[in-house]
Request: fold
Amino acid sequence: MKRIVIVPDGVGDWPLEELGGKTPLEAAKKPHLDELCYHSILGTLKTCPDGMYPGSDVCGLSLMGYDPKVGYSGRAPLEAANLGIVLKPGELAFRCNLVHEENGILTDYSADHISTEEADLLIQELQKRLGSDVISFHPGKMYRHILLYRRADDLAVQTDQPHDFQGNAYRQHWPRGKGAQLLIDLTERSKKILSAHPVNEARIKKGKKPANMIWLWGGGPAPKLESFQEKYGISGGVISAVDLLNGLGRYVGWEIINVPGATGYFDTDYQAKGRYAIDALRRLDLVFVHVEATDEAGHTGNVSEKVRAIENIDRHIVAPVVQHLKQEKDWRLFVAPDHYTPIVKKTHVAEPVPFIFAGSDVSQASQKSYTEANANVTRIKLEQGYALMARLVHGWPR
Reply:
């Protein structure tokens, strides 16, 4: 039995005036998703437990078959794992965004989607100027990086995600709780260091926003997660350009499948993701394919890019993967976003997401296209996010 998961991150959305009252899913030309959905099970899935934030960490755990209320410890430890940072007892990891601020307003959570090469130089400078035996900075990809803190007892803070308050005064979102002033001081000191850096001077000359501040959030210790092999009895692998999803994969014991050209942005190589997914299916029981572009479009409020990303996923991932699976005797597949990222909100929303469940042993047919509205009117509503993976492994109950 071959199994695959396709996750168009944040694809769920609300009707938009610029699309004539349609959502991006409704407006996009996605014949392969719609055909798959027509002959498969369509429903909604609650990926975010009550009381938790609908981030890709929490919701991604759900889609991977784990209860976030049991295994979740914070976002940053997951991303750190994919950078080779194994947290020891007493250590905390924080996500360290490179952001742009202007006159006290956080104007861009990604510093104009700074390149990995530019960001690496800035993180090296922060490590040189602010690093110590207790604090260290570790470069990741683009604007996403890690701060490691080695005295966990010093901190018990609550933090806000920068993409949630872009365009607002960032001081209203300072860390809160025990040790919060430490993170605030690091943020303030980063402004002086980064503003004067040659990388940012060059960006300004090119008309780009400088990465002139850090924002620290999502901190936590290492999670304790049962391996996927032990939990479900099969092997797995993950394809993603995002450290968070790859870090989750590492913690559950999946193979990390690196795809050349996968960027985590609008320019990602969709065709390569499709090819590598098919290749991985030949040696693994399950492959989890994650695409970030739809979520980035939601965060930036870019309607056309969200529609384009859906169409690219349909053409270059769904189409070839389904064609390959149909050559297999036994197979199952589900398609589901981890959460909604509505264009008008530019952040995540904890609504049950639309999912497709297909397979060689699935006889039910929705006779509907793949849209939020169609999923919401079905009677199939799964209240535990991890239930969908359990059904992918064990089969849909008859």
Q: What stands out?
A: The CA atoms of residues 168 and 289 lie 34 Å apart. The longest strand covers residues 92-102.
